[in-house]
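Why do we care about 3D structure at all? Because function follows from shape, and shape follows, mostly, from sequence. That is the central idea of this module. The next example makes it concrete: a single protein chain, its amino acid sequence, and then its structure expressed as tokens.
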Amino acid sequence: MNSTSENRWRDLRPDPDSDTPLYLQLARKLGNAIHENRWNAGEALPSEHVLSETLGVSRITSRKAIALLVEQVLICRTQGAGSFITLRYEDPLSRLSSFSEMLRRRGFTPGSKWLSRVIEPANRDEVIQLSLRRRP
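And the structure:
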């Protein structure tokens, strides 16, 4: 890692004097940094070995922290390629929106397509459920 990357990781270093296990501290700090958008979605994390050396923790500690973040879907692992920050989409819960609005915000064009349609008289159950009157 270069000096710019090392500065980025410096405040993630766990406190060995804390009662909280090191891997939980690391996972919490890294998770907060991801939520604060200090890393871009799709950006690669360093290997467990490099992460361990940079933060002064064991490989097991960094492995457990990354595994915890994988469970929380903040990081995804790809065999042979490494660990990456996952793509995330945050939709504010304070504002209700339709499914079509949500798709438009994500860059999609919502639409519909008839697969088949038939016009036929309602059967007995449909007449009862829809409170319809039968035609004579």
